[in-house]
Amino acid sequence: MEVDLRPLIRDLHSSGTEIVLPVVEENHLRHVLFENEHSLKESPFGVMAPHKGVEVDASSLDLVIVPALAVDGSGHRLGYGGGHYDRFLSQASGIFITPVFREQIVDAIPADAHDIPVHFVVSEDGIIDIAQL
């Protein structure tokens, strides 16, 4: 289960913040500028994603919200397989945040050298700043 970010996306977009959403195409993760809710369609993964729009370079992003099935106190996360986000995050330079429910925070997740940890974990219990641990 993932945290529903649609209310956050709507609020930020209505305040003028540029929102960029992921699109998986042929085992490659692209990020496309969000235009409006009408520019979204259901992806093969069952989530709403842009089906058109301007692609944004990973290095230009200030903040990346990274999905996870689970995350540990070191910022390592268990994703959905395929390594899409690890490849993407290796090119990004912003702050990486994973929003999860408290039961998704675990003691440890096995990590390899190519796994990119997030900087912050956010749950209903608060914010974990990985650098402060």
A few lines on this structure:
11% of the residues lie in helices and 31% in strands. The protein is mainly beta and 133 residues long.
Q: What would the average pLDDT be, to the nearest integer?
A: 89
- The end-to-end span amounts to 26 Å
Number of strands: 11
The H-and-E topology, N to C, reads as: HEEEEEEEHEEEE
Gross geometry: globular
- CATH architectural category: 3-Layer(aba) Sandwich
Describe the sheet with the most strands. 4 strands, mixed
**Order of neighbouring strands in the sheet with most strands:** 5-8-10-11
Low-confidence stretches: none
Give the helix tally: 2
CATH topology: Rossmann fold
Beta-strand residue percentage? 25-35%
CATH C-level class is: Alpha Beta
Rg over alpha carbons: 15 Å
Q: Write down the domain tally.
A: 1
Give an account of the 3D structure:
The protein has 133 residues and is mainly beta. The protein has two helices and eleven strands. The strands form four sheets. It has a four-stranded mixed β-sheet, with no helix packed on it. A hairpin with a 5-residue loop joins β3 and β4. The longest helix has 9 residues, at 6-14. The two termini are 26 Å apart. The mean pLDDT is 89.
